[in-house]
Specification:
InterPro entries: Spore_V_AE, SpoVA. It is a single chain. With 119 residues, this protein is mainly alpha-helical. It has one domain. The protein is 84% helix and 0% strand. The longest helix is centred in the C-terminal third of the chain and has 29 residues.
């Protein structure tokens, strides 16, 4: 890997995060709304076929931000729809994203067990 790989990952990932921050700073939207907007933007970008080239170009800069979750939802649904038809739309969503969601649940549980809330 060259230094350019890391530079472009930083630039693209930073740009995605900066867009989210600008939306929060210039509107009265909550972080949850902004997160939803970024997930939908990633889904739309995958539907238009532009997210995969972005991943090839920026690597982790495109796969780490929340937009990648929207990309994964649409990507899995479209792939499984080709293989299994209409039912594949639903199963594809779960198949592609289940590991990430499961990890989030497990780590959230562990954080709740071991962290002391301030109160």
């Amino acid at each position: 890997m060259s230094a350019w790989t890391f530079l472009w990952a930083f630039v693209v990932g930073g740009a995605i995060c900066a867009i989210g921050q600008v939306i929060m700073d210039t509107t009265k939207l909550t972080p949850g709304h902004v997160m939803s907007i970024l997930v939908v933007a990633g889904a739309i970008a995958d539907g238009l076929g532009v997210y995969d080239p972005l991943i090839k170009f920026a690597g982790a800069g495109a796969t780490v931000p929340i937009t990648s979750f929207g990309n994964a939802l649409v990507h899995g649904a479209l792939h499984e729809a080709k293989v299994h038809g209409l039912i594949g739309v639903i199963t594809g969503i779960f198949e592609v994203t289940s590991a990430g969601i499961s990890a989030a649940i497990v780590f959230a549980f562990l954080a709740a067990v071991f962290a002391k809330p301030k109160g």
